[in-house]
Design a protein that fits this description.
Elements (H helix, E strand, L loop, with lengths): L3 E5 L8 H11 L22 H10 L3 E7 L7 H14 L1 H4 L2 E3 L10 E4 L13 E4 L8 H8 L2
Parallel strand pairs: 1-2, 1-4, 2-3, 4-5
Length: 149
Amino acid sequence: MVKKIIYIDLDDTICDYSNAHKLALKQNPDVLFPQGQSGFFRGLQPLEGSIELMKELLKSEVYDPFILTAPSTLNPLCYTEKRLWVEDYLGMEYVDRLIISPRKDLLKGSYLIDDYNCGKGQELFCGEVIHFGTSKFPDWKALRDFLMI
């Protein structure tokens, strides 16, 4: 059986970018782009249930999971920090499955799970885009139910 390729976004899908961004702005309002500060991406917290389901996906007989995240192209630190974050929380198996690209439409697969449905090529992705954080897919439990894991 050929496994279904599934791509999962990192920021605000696996880890909590938005709340970290808001907190950083509140703590230091003079820094307009806290995501450009050293340690920002590596310090993000995982969303509830994300780590567990990501690890289960690796064992799946149905899915072949990859992380597909867009970089903050003006911040070269984000490339390294995202990679280190993946190693810290998901291990080397996912480091080998980490794809950093500003164009998500360039990859082929069955599913793309992302908190945005357009802007980085999501709207041109050839498979199904699962819009994370919406009423249909508000959290990782809803994803688990949909993927039947």
